[in-house]
Design goal:
The protein is of the alpha+beta class and 240 residues long. It has one domain. It is built from eleven helices and six strands. It has a four-stranded mixed sheet, sandwiched between helices. The protein has a two-stranded antiparallel ribbon with strand order 1-2. Helix 2 (22-42) packs across helix 7 (125-132), helix 3 packs across helix 5 (84-96) and helix 3 (51-63) crosses helix 7 (125-132). It is globular, with a radius of gyration of 18 Å. The model has no long low-confidence stretch (mean pLDDT 90).
């Protein structure tokens, strides 16, 4: 697969044979990846009082991958009798299952991190693509939309390697200034910004450096480390 098809289709080996037929590929991801992960891996090992709510949270959360959204807003879209604490618990379960997580905002103290608006991030971009309703052509030919896929691919790579290396993954925003990913390790941090033509100039890296003094900063994509090269890296090689 070339890098762009990998970013969209996510690289689940069993689905590669169906990438020329996107309808069949979506059925494969939903029936052979998502359904077993939730209906068997989660529901057979954890007590979930509202499995339908968790499934809908997962489906909606995947479509927001790369975006910040408050849990109370998600709850309103889910149209279910529940509360934010229930959603937070289900999101933790989905994170532990390596399906979907809500990244916390980077801050100097843990209280601010835990009380932040989460940024949704899939552990594999196939989950975003299968549930988004966009075809490969539609996503790839729209710079703004494709930017979320590129960012989600980088985020998935960082998340999947986090346990092995021992770093924590966050995002950061202050009004219009943002940093896509912040890796924290041994009380030090690095900042990573993904550039794919999806938005205008962003002063996030500069402002973040002034505020937090990261030991390193990286641009991934346009003007920085090529996406294909970054997705082949062990993030540990970037750390301090």
């Amino acid at each position: 697969m070339d890098i762009d098809h990998y970013i969209f289709f996510g690289g689940f080996p069993g689905g590669i044979a169906f990438t020329n037929n996107e309808a069949r590929w979506r059925h494969y991801i939903k029936d052979s990846i998502i359904a077993p992960a939730i209906e068997h891996d989660i529901l057979m090992t954890k007590i979930v009082y509202k499995p339908e709510l968790m499934l809908r949270l997962f489906e909606l959360g995947c479509t927001y991958s790369g975006e910040e959204i408050a849990l109370n807003k998600l709850l309103g879209q889910l149209q279910d009798v529940g509360n934010v604490t229930t959603l937070a618990n289900y999101l933790t379960t989905l994170d532990e299952s390596r399906l979907l997580c809500g990244l916390q905002k980077y801050a100097n103290d843990n209280a601010r991190k835990y009380n932040s608006i989460p940024k949704m991030m899939v552990y594999n971009t196939a989950l975003l693509s299968a549930l988004s309703g966009y075809t490969y052509r539609q996503a790839f030919t729209s710079p703004k939309i494709w930017g979320r896929w590129a960012e989600s691919a980088v985020g998935a790579h960082l998340l999947n390697m986090a346990d092995e290396t021992g770093y924590r993954v966050y995002y950061w925003r202050n009004r219009d200034d943002e940093v896509d990913f912040v890796l924290e390790y041994n009380h030090k941090c690095i900042a990573i910004e993904v550039k794919s033509g999806r938005r205008t100039a962003n002063n996030g890296i500069r402002v973040f450096k002034e505020k937090f003094s990261p030991v390193q900063t990286f641009i991934v994509g346009t003007g920085g480390i090529p996406l294909e090269e970054f997705l082949s890296l062990d993030p540990a090689d970037l750390l301090f």
